Every structure is written in structure tokens, then in C-alpha cells.
Amino acid sequence: DQPRDQLGLVELPRGTAVVASPYPRPIPGVPVEQNLHGISFAVANATGGIARLINETGMAQSADSIIDLIRSRI
């Protein structure tokens, strides 16, 4: 699993995909395995991570530039 605060990349036959944690923020006292999880949280975490990168760098000309930005931070 991808750490919640990091984005990853995976190379697929049709291109590069962003990988993110399928878990929401932790709930105190609840083991992470017992919390809700799934693709919706992964999409939200990926979107939030990409938004933070764009906000920090001001760089977002295309999907390829975002992939390059993520790649430079891995």
C-alpha cells in the first residue's frame, strides 16, 4: 500500500497511472484495517496530492507535466 501522504506512479501498457493510498485520515483508536477504504479514497488522496503539488510549484501545464513533477519527488 502507498503511504497516505505520498503519491506513486505505475507504468501501464496505456500510460502512467498515479497511485495513492486507499485509506482516509486515521480515526483515533480505530485500527487502519478496520476503517473504511477503497478506490474513492485513493482517488481523493491522489487528487489532493496533485493539488498540493500544483499549489506548491505553480506547475501544471498538462497531465505529462504533473506526472514528471510526481516522478521528480519519488
In short:
This protein is 41% helix and 14% strand.
What descriptors fit this protein?
about 70 residues; globular; 2 strands; 2 helices; two-stranded antiparallel sheet; alpha+beta
C-alpha-based Rg, rounded? 13 Å
Structural class by sheet pairing and helices: alpha+beta
For the sheet with most strands, the description reads: 2 strands, antiparallel
Mean pLDDT: 92
Determine the number of helices (DSSP H or I, runs of at least 4 residues).
2
Number of strands: 2
**Number of domain modules:** 1
Residue fraction in strands: 5-15%
Helix content: 40-55%
Query: What's the arrangement of strands in the largest beta sheet?
Result: 1-2
Order of helices and strands: EEHH
**Unreliable parts:** none
Distance between the termini: 15 Å
Label the overall shape: globular
Characterization of the model:
By secondary structure, this protein is α+β, with helices and mostly antiparallel strands. Helices cover 41% and strands 14% of the residues. The mean pLDDT is 92. A two-stranded antiparallel sheet has the order 1-2. The two termini are 15 Å apart. It has one domain (8-23, 36-73).
Q: What topology does this entry show?
A:
Layout (H helix, E strand, L loop, with lengths): L7 E5 L2 E5 L19 H19 L5 H11 L1
Antiparallel strand pairs: 1-2
